[in-house]
Specification:
6-stranded mixed sheet, 6-stranded mixed β-barrel, alpha/beta, globular
């Protein structure tokens, strides 16, 4: 295939709603482009259904009472992307060196199609050449065996099934390490750390039916229209029954403004739409703590006034007394907070915060929905805990229609943690694993994503095995990481399509193609199913039926099992072959390791709406050291971790409407009015004028981290946009080059991609 060129850049305001005919036209474009067969296209009817397959993109919940078409625009793009009839064969690699392919765009690499054969890098020709599976497994295992296990990283993508994840984590621990970074390290680790400390569980407490019981929603830092569009149905239904939705987000995102339901014939025919946010507050990047402090300050002032009048308290004082700890210190901090500081740091007027506080004070049950706009800051954990503070003030955890609702990104990123993909010993029942499998499990903390990056750069990581993903493209410090990667002794990439990480080989490098989740997976006992966990802690079965892209593909469990057999000493308690032959046996093993969570796992696979794993905090059982939910006094009002300075901006990296994570489906960000390019810099009109710039001008960004390292991104088109002053927006992953690896959330190590200090350069 010849490299496709993007259209000429066309940037103009978009006036339509999210969804609607724009979604239909988008699908009408991508499906023929991917040459999806009619048979494969029929798979869309099975997407997110009880006996169908779980979407391979986002992890939003799947309803029991599903729509006829239970997929969104982004999910349909992901399905077309996987079921494409385009192929990347050994003949393709015979024509292209890796040096040449590094000049291709991310889109062109993946657009070429599905990988068909296992491949080995040949340094003499700088090309991938076909290899046999036995050759690959034998050399990988032989390379790994003599290494210090502490120097090896086992990364996994958030789309990997529960079955493959469990096997992968077990293999790593039996090999001798817990170096198991995953997608969660890059996005919602701040949630896992923050919620665990505050309420005793690392995940949200709500389920899909809580949308039916809430009377207000607080919505922070998440672009629902592009990142989890199926949630728009739940938000629309809530609005139709009068639920107030108060949004805090720096950019005006169309999905949080207006939505036309593509599955509603009347709305489509009449061009009708639903207003989503009843209040929309454009908080500064990193200003959420201040905004929440302002709401809390109004609540405390009104509560004091109610006491003075002998009126009903505004705060849920009975809940606070019975269920929380640390309230007095928190209230002291709220009273001491200065309004001028709050307004300056939030970038919002006092009256705007008062409007939000009044709605919150009147509501009986409130959902708090949030995304990486809270988690990806230096003070990301404090962001999450400040949101919990707000919920605790009015008893909005552990009752119908109320609680924290983090929107996880990838389809099984939360489930991976549930079955042991973590670097933290305290999150895994290592004693149970030892008794179950007769080995001594490592207790030393493993490496997370930031620590893995450090290790690649300084050479302490000698081998990297990736079960999916595009690690090198997704992480910070792009230039240093790409320069260091070829020094690895071993690089193993398990993938469905070619991506940029595959173009940076180590001394020994294999690219191993796997089945996609939508494809039929036939093993010794017949067709198999896999399982995933959604954002609301419900487990779902996923059955692929599409014809595999190549007869040479292996499933992820088969790849992990074959590698484990060769890498590890024989263990009579682990029959890798039997597990690969029948995934139900893997689920039995998962149930033995986690009996409380996975009781009767195999018997509950196809329950409509999924099987909930339970949540102690949702029952108001607080598994914290104090035995109560914990208030936190934030360390300051800004989450950025750096101060303001002349010429310094806060850069937010963003995803477009035409991408999912590092996968670029095209060059059309419909909701932001951008077509034909990803080289844009969203900027406030007043900032453009103050900097002496003009819309359409080409500029560069430079890192302003103050560490003496030059990080620069060239060729960005200045694009006027409705964004707070002092803030900039540009696309991920292209602007990761500007982010230092050490610019991360303090407690969780999540890269702080939503407030990166930068300067505009000529």
């Amino acid at each position: 295939m010849t490299k496709q060129k993007s259209d000429s850049p066309d940037i103009r305001p978009f006036t339509g709603p999210a969804g609607g005919w724009g979604s239909v036209r988008s699908l009408a474009e991508i499906i023929p482009r991917e040459r999806v067969t009619p048979e494969a296209l029929r798979e869309l009817a099975r997407q997110n259904k009880p006996d169908g397959f779980a979407c391979v993109s986002c992890g939003w919940a799947k309803p029991a009472d599903h729509h006829p078409a239970e997929f969104c625009e982004e999910g349909a793009k992901a399905t077309a992307w996987e079921l494409t009839t385009r192929r990347t064969t050994p003949d393709f690699f015979a024509e292209h060196t890796l040096t040449e392919l590094r000049g291709w765009r991310d889109y062109d690499l993946e657009e070429h199609g599905r990988l068909t054969h296992p491949l080995r890098y040949d340094s003499a020709t700088d090309k991938y050449v076909a290899a046999s599976w036995d050759e690959a497994f034998d050399e990988i295992a032989a390379t790994l065996r003599p290494l210090d296990p502490k120097s090896v990283v086992f990364y996994s993508s958030g789309r990997t099934s529960l079955e493959a994840s469990y096997m992968y984590g077990l293999m790593a621990r039996m090999y001798g390490n817990q170096n198991l970074p995953d997608s969660s390290n890059m996005c919602h680790e701040s949630t896992s750390v923050g919620l665990k400390a505050a309420i005793g569980v690392p995940v949200g407490t709500t389920r899909l039916d809580d949308f039916e019981h809430c009377d207000a929603i607080l919505f922070f830092g998440q672009n629902v229209g592009s990142n989890s569009p199926r949630m728009l149905h739940d938000l629309r239904t809530a609005r139709k029954r009068g639920v107030q939705i108060i949004t805090f987000n720096p950019l005006k995102e169309r999905g949080l403004e207006r939505f036309t339901d593509p599955q509603n014939p009347i709305e489509m025919a009449t061009l009708g739409e639903t207003r989503i946010s009843t209040q929309y507050h454009q908080v500064k990047a990193g200003g959420d703590i201040a905004a929440m402090m302002g709401i809390a300050k109004f609540l405390v002032e009104w509560n004091d006034a109610a006491h003075a009048k002998g009126a009903v308290p505004v705060l849920d004082e009975e809940f606070i007394a019975q269920h929380t700890h640390g309230f007095d210190a928190f209230v002291d901090a709220v009273r001491a907070a200065d309004w001028d500081d709050i307004v300056r740091e939030a970038g919002l007027a006092k009256g705007e915060l008062e409007e939000s506080a009044r709605i919150y004070a009147k509501a009986k049950a409130v959902l708090a929905i949030y995304g990486m706009g809270l988690t990806q800051h230096v003070k990301g954990v404090e962001n999450v805990r400040m949101l919990v503070n707000l919920l605790l003030m009015r008893g909005n955890i552990g009752k119908p229609g109320a609680g924290p609702t983090p929107v996880r990104g990838h389809s099984n990123v939360q489930g991976q943690r549930t079955v042991g993909i973590t670097e933290k010993t305290e999150l895994v029942p290592v004693e149970v694993l030892e008794a179950q499998y007769g080995f001594t499990a490592p207790r030393e903390k493993g490496t997370d994503t930031v620590e893995a990056c450090r290790g690649v750069i300084d050479g302490s990581v000698t081998a990297f095995v990736a079960l999916g993903g595009n690690f090198l493209r997704a992480v910070p410090e792009t230039a240093a990481m790409e320069e260091a990667w070829p020094r690895l002794g071993l690089s193993v990439q398990i993938a469905t399509k070619l991506n940029r990480n595959h173009l940076f080989p180590g001394a020994v490098t294999y690219l191993l193609p796997c089945l996609g989740r939508i494809e039929e997976d036939v093993q010794a006992t017949g067709p198999q199913i896999v399982t995933v966990e959604d954002s609301t802690s419900c487990f779902h079965a996923s059955r692929g039926k599409a014809h595999p892209a190549s007869r040479h593909l292996l499933s992820e469990p088969a790849i992990v099992g074959a590698l484990a057999k060769r890498l590890l000493p024989h263990n009579p308690r682990v029959d890798w072959d039997a597990w690969v032959g029948d995934y139900a046996l893997i689920r039995d093993a998962i149930e033995q390791t986690y009996p409380a969570v996975f009781k009767d796992f195999n018997a509950r696979l196809f329950k409509p709406g999924g099987s909930w794993k339970g949540n102690k905090a949702a029952e108001r059982i607080w598994e914290t050291p104090s035995g109560k939910a914990e208030f936190l006094v934030p360390s300051g009002l800004s989450a950025t971790g750096f101060g303001d300075a002349a010429g310094r901006y806060r850069l937010m990296t963003l995803r477009s409407n035409d991408q999912f994570n590092t996968t670029i489906y095209g060059y059309h960000d419909r909701f932001r009015g951008v077509k034909g390019t990803r080289d844009v810099l969203f900027m406030n009109d007043a900032d453009i004028a103050a900097a002496g710039l003009a819309g359409g001008q080409i500029v560069a960004l430079e890192s302003d981290a103050g560490d003496g390292i030059v990080r620069r991104r060239e060729g960005l088109i200045v694009t006027p946009y409705d964004i707070p002053r002092g803030c900039l927006g540009a696309y991920y992953p292209e602007c990761n080059v500007l982010m230092p690896v050490e610019h991360h959330a303090e407690e969780s190590h999540v890269p702080a991609a939503k407030s990166v200090p930068v300067r505009i350069a000529a």
